[in-house]
Each structure stands twice: as structure tokens, then as C-alpha cells.
């Protein structure tokens, strides 16, 4: 933009002093508007010697309306208003948002200009907002920078897993083994998954014994938290919400998805432990009440496992098949590949919590700052049903457009960061933390997002309800999750809320998992 069409001096609302265009020829200089060094014609403050802004930035419109019909890079239905700073207190109040075009933060750019829509908590860097491929090309020559162009060919990834899974009834095991014609795990001689006979339930009132032609009429129910009916698969710990499925012919609460009966008895070359074969096991050796910490998602689990006993390496059955590549709606059109991080200076794109060195994540090779926890990618379903709402709740990754109030969780009643993944009902206009909406929809559960390490309900891989007899107490104890009403441990005195506990239903005796473990080992 030539000097002949520029004003030689201007009063700009971003600065209290007169700005003067003293040099008519282009120079290389730092711009205090966008925070970048580039070449062009600049305005400078004669009072503040270190304040200069590029002429393109100086005359940017105060409002931008970016629509699909006018810009294919990104769009927003409301006008974006220019702001001449983004102070840290304001960023903190808005949960430290990231640019909605490039996904980089504003943390060290509080004195640079941005475009924003406060109503939708939508913020973009100055150059991202004007959709310029390179900083400070004229806005009239925009070709777009925010759009995620597909970076892979479908033909090269015929079995690519597209996430999130549609709803909480789906998981990677269903994706891999549903309607698989392979042998069932409990029909092989290699493994004994359950001590009793297992029967097939294929209608609501008829079950047929495996290997037998006899049948009996008996009512069977599916998982339904609204009616306080809990039916969780003992292998993957996900709810059984459709038939057919398998159950124990005796009185114990052992059930399996049909596809979980087709799990392979061993896994070769698992990316977390390629040196040894991992074997399928229904009970992990030397683990009290079969509770082990999965070495991939780091969540406690008492379901089936794939493990190497020699090295003490165990993973839950879903993490036994962690995919090499995925796509995810949180970062659409880009391939995300399984990697082990070589540094810890990353945060998850979904939950905004830390990623740890040496652990798996799904990473975008095209975007350096995009990584996702495996558990966030694989365990947070696209829609869920919750006992608190009659409508489906959708997984959201950004603030909701036209949201009319502050964000808070309807479950724990604490503040909610809308820049991290959360569930939202568009009909009732209310939201919940992803960690406060257990994916298995237990009928009685107490949650609080501040207690969990990331966006996943901590006990999503734990099946409660089993009865245990322990030394030192005459009554049987029920394995469950502690709530506020359970008070403190009868042995060590710690607060039992949110903990795994063993509770007597006949008296007030209640102890935490660790104390019960010590009692049984003594």
C-alpha cells in the first residue's frame, strides 16, 4: 500500500499518542499490532520510540463478518470485533482460549491485537482473522489459512478408525470383532475365562446353553440406568444394551458382549511391549480383586486384560488393540498417528491436560501442536444418554454458539471450561464435564471433574457390585465407589468419597480398597 494513498499521521484508538508515517519506503520492522516482524510501510509513535504498527494492520476493519459464502478458510456467524489487547486476567477468566484458526494460544501475546466474538468465546489472532496465508499480505488477496485440508488418501488407509465412536455402546472391540466368524475365546483349550458354563441370551425371554439344544424361558434385561439396571460386560466393562450376549448359567453376575467372546487369546507385537506376547486373561495374577492399572490409558481396571506376567505388563482389552492411525472430529481431515512422546511439553487437544513423556498419544504430523490422549480419543463417545436428561448429549470441543450464560457442570455444579471436551444438551442448553458423565451410565455414581486426572471418569473400567468376605469383619462387604455419605475409612480414617471401597450393608463398617488389600494379605 503506497504512501500516496496513506495518511501521513493518524490518531489510532489502539494508542494514546499521534502515529506518524515518517518513512515512505518499505522497511523491515516489528509490528506492535500483530507481534510479527515483516516488511512494509509503518506508523510510529514519536513519543514512545518502540511503538510501530504496519499500515495494513492500522487500517484493518473494526468488525469482520466471515461467512462460508465469502471465505472458505473458516467462518463464524457473528461479526468479529477487533480488540487491541487480550490481558492475562481476561484470558484467565475465559479459561486461556486458543486461536480458533491455528490452535495456538494467546498467553504471551496479551498486548497484541485479536479479533473476537465475546458472545461465543471465539478468539483469533489478527492475521488468522484476516485469513492471510503469510502475515500481512493484503486482505484483498486472501486465499485462506484456517481450513484443515485433508492430508491423507482414503485408499491408503482402508481400515481407518473414524472417531469419536457414535455412542457409549460402541468401542474398538465391537469395531474389530462384531460379526466376526472366528472361534470364541471360551471355546478354546488355551484359556479358561470363567469357572461356570456360559449361555447365549438372544431374546428377552429365551436363553440357550452353549453346546446344547435345550432352552428355557427366563426373563433377561439389558443395561438401563433409568431403571437402575446395570449390566456391564466383564471383558471390556462397557454396558450391554443389545442382544445377543453371553451370561453365566449360575447365579454370578458374569456377562459378555457377543463380540467380546471372539477376542484373540494372544496379541503379538503390542506397541507398548513388543518384546513379548501378551496373553488374554480374565484375572490378572497377584492383583487383589483383579484391580490393575492399564499401562496405556493408566486407568484402574478389573475387566479382562492382555498381559505379560514375566514383565508385569498389563493392558485392558481395549488398549490391547490401540490403533496405529485414527481420525477424530476434534481435529477433522487430518490423520492422527500413534506415537510415544519424547517430551512432556504438550497438552491434549481434547481435555487440555498434560501429555506425559514416554506415553502414547495420537499426534498430527501436519500440525505440531495437536496431540490427543488415547483415552480421550477412544473412550469419549460422540453422544451419550444420561439419567439427568431425556435428550442425547453431544460431545463438544469448543464453546457453543449463542450460549447465553456462564458455563457450569449440571452434575458437580462447578465451573466448566468450554475450550476442553464436554457434553452438551442443545435442547435443554446445559452442559456437563466429560468426567462427570460416566460413559457406562451407572445408576448410582458420585463424580467431580476436579478429582479426576483428565477428562475420563476414573472408574470407567471398573465393575462394582461384587461381594467380598474379608478378615476382621463378620459380614460380607460390597465393592462399590464411595460417596459423601460413606464418611471415613473404618481402618485408616481417610475420606472415602470418590474412592474404591468395601462397604457392609448390615452395619456401618466401611474400608477403602488399600486397607482391604492389606487385611487380605496379612
From TrEMBL:
All copies of the DC1 domain together span 74-128, 224-260, 272-319, 389-437
Q: Which UniProt keywords apply?
A: Repeat
List the source organism.
Answer: Artemisia annua
Q: Which PANTHER family match?
A: CYSTEINE/HISTIDINE-RICH C1 DOMAIN FAMILY PROTEIN, DC1, ZINC FINGER, RING_FYVE_PHD-TYPE-RELATED
Asked whether the UniProt record includes Nucleus among its keywords, one would answer: no
Q: One Pfam family this chain carries?
A: C1_2
Q: Does the keyword Manganese apply?
A: no
Taxonomic lineage of the native organism:
Eukaryota, Viridiplantae, Streptophyta, Embryophyta, Tracheophyta
List the coiled-coil residues.
Answer: none
- Name of the protein in its database record: Zinc finger, PHD-type
